[in-house]
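INFO batch 0412 | record 1 of 1 | parsing
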Amino acid sequence: MRTAKQLLITVAVLLCSTVASAHDFEVGGIYYEILSESDLTVKVNVNYSNSNEVVIPETVTYNSKTYSVTTIGEYAFRRCTGLTSVTIPNSVTTIETWAFRYCTGLTSIIVEKGNAVYDSRENCNAIIETQTNTLIAGCKNTII
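INFO prediction complete | emitting tokens
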């Protein structure tokens, strides 16, 4: 017979395992989830690279297929406190909720010119949804 404490621990472990991000493959410390095999699109799910500068690629290759990186997933870079710089490619058209939550070390955010959905105009060090002028993520040096 299990004690109440053992049952609570078991439930906590089960809940944590169901909340964990799903991913299909890893390239350079960044884990990706395949969104569509027919469109060959993926999203960044988790960043485990120890780099303080991350350049998200426009494409990644896995199993001889080249996928376009179109999405940065919910909480993908959460608590990457050592992350100081991130560059987002033109291919990213969706940034999910809290993708950069608690990235307290960020000093540089760059959205590549020509991105159809997001920008970091005039080197503002932020991610702005262009159409609505909504601030998606900022950093220590954000200029509004």
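INFO post-check: Residues 4-20 have pLDDT under 50 and may be disordered.
INFO record closed
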